[in-house]
Design goal:
With 115 residues, the chain is of the alpha+beta class. It has helices at 70-81, 101-106; strands spanning 12-18, 22-29, 41-43, 48-50, 53-54, 56-59, 65-68, 89-92. The protein has one domain. The protein is elongated and about 55 Å long.
């Protein structure tokens, strides 16, 4: 059973938009709740700033998380240019797979599309 928590006990409120194609987040502090901050992501050749980043994940050859979003895209692109990408796994547009609890329970990296 959920327990009520007084509103004054929270220092920050955070919202996360985990989208199929792009993801983002925002937050505000208790002392100024109407001032919502949405940090930007740096994209491409460091010339684009966006409030959202691609929903993609890069996993290293040891099957450990490496990076997310534009960072994952950029790193995988550099690895591919140098021919070093073969043991890395790059996942994108995987959100809808996560909606089926049975799929998530049995999901492994082999079930996702690797680019």
């Amino acid at each position: 059973m959920a327990t009520a928590v007084p509103n004054n006990s929270f220092l920050v409120v955070t919202a996360i938009d985990f989208g199929t194609a792009y993801s983002g987040y925002g937050f505000s502090f208790r002392d100024d709740p109407m001032k919502v901050q949405t940090p930007g992501w740096i994209a491409g050749t460091n010339t684009l700033i966006s409030y959202k980043t691609p929903t993609c994940v890069l996993v290293n050859p040891e099957k450990k998380f490496d990076s997310f979003g534009y960072d994952a895209e950029n790193k995988y692109y550099r690895l591919a240019q140098e021919g070093l990408h073969h043991d890395w796994m790059f996942f994108k547009r995987f959100k809808m797979i996560l909606h089926n609890p049975q799929v998530v329970y049995r999901l492994s990296y082999k079930d996702l599309v690797v680019i």
